[in-house]
Amino acid sequence: MGVIRGKKICRFCENKVTMINYKDERILKRFTNERGKIIPRRVTGNCAMHQRKLTTAIKRGRVLAIVAFAAESYR
Amino acid sequence: MVRNYETTFIINPQSDDATIEKHVSDIKDIITNSKGTIINENHMGTRRLAYEIDKLTQGYYATFIYEAPTEVLPLLEQHFKINEAYIRDLTIRLECDPQEYLKQQDPFGKHGSDRDSDRPHRHRSDKPQTKSDDAPDKAEAAPEKTEVKEESTKADDAPADDKPSEDKA
Lengths: 75, 169
Fold this sequence. Notes:
The complex is a heterodimer of chains A (75) and B (169). By secondary structure, chain A is mostly helical. In chain A, 40% of the residues lie in helices and 0% in strands. Chain A has four helices and no strands. With 169 residues, chain B is an alpha+beta fold. Chain B has two domains: 2-105, Alpha-Beta Plaits (2-Layer Sandwich); 128-168. Chain B has four helices and four strands; from the N terminus they run βαββαβαα. The radius of gyration of chain B is 30 Å and the shape is globular. At the A-B interface, α1, α2 and α4 of A face β2, β3 and β4 of B.
């Protein structure tokens, strides 16, 4: 039997975020795992719109070497 | 057609400050020379790169938010490609008002710090912060534990006294 939890609320909706800054390492790292993979929204509870924006932000951050494509230990 | 853009680029930090400054002002000149206006200029300075680029581990980051005709972009692109001092560059089109965009740069800055505890994933770099948060909790928990121990020793004594009495009966 799984533990029933309350519905997860999108962190970005909660803070009324309309744009996600791709230069903010803190946010991008918060939603990627140790390998540097983007965490699915079924885990984080993000809404579809913000997950979409977050994904582009993380991908832009990767180009600018703000977050890694893959963690160093796994390369 | 005039549009809002944001260009971020990384410069090789091994060159001296004057040349880095020159590389930044070069970009500014390209924008302003083709009838563009710079709205915001942000020098993030030398930062650690998330991965090695051309054997470099650090880079000098600078960002421009500007309003310019579309003809600027090929000029910038050419400049970035020719000059080897620029490690990376990224230009994005801002769909919204640049002033509003600037306001949103730090969305969790004011409200997010108090909710760090329930973030989905903690990174190694974040550990010192969480440790400092946990420290006072542990200090509070410690005296409680000793109290519990005292109670349990008392509880152990009680049945020990009862048992012999039961045997006697």
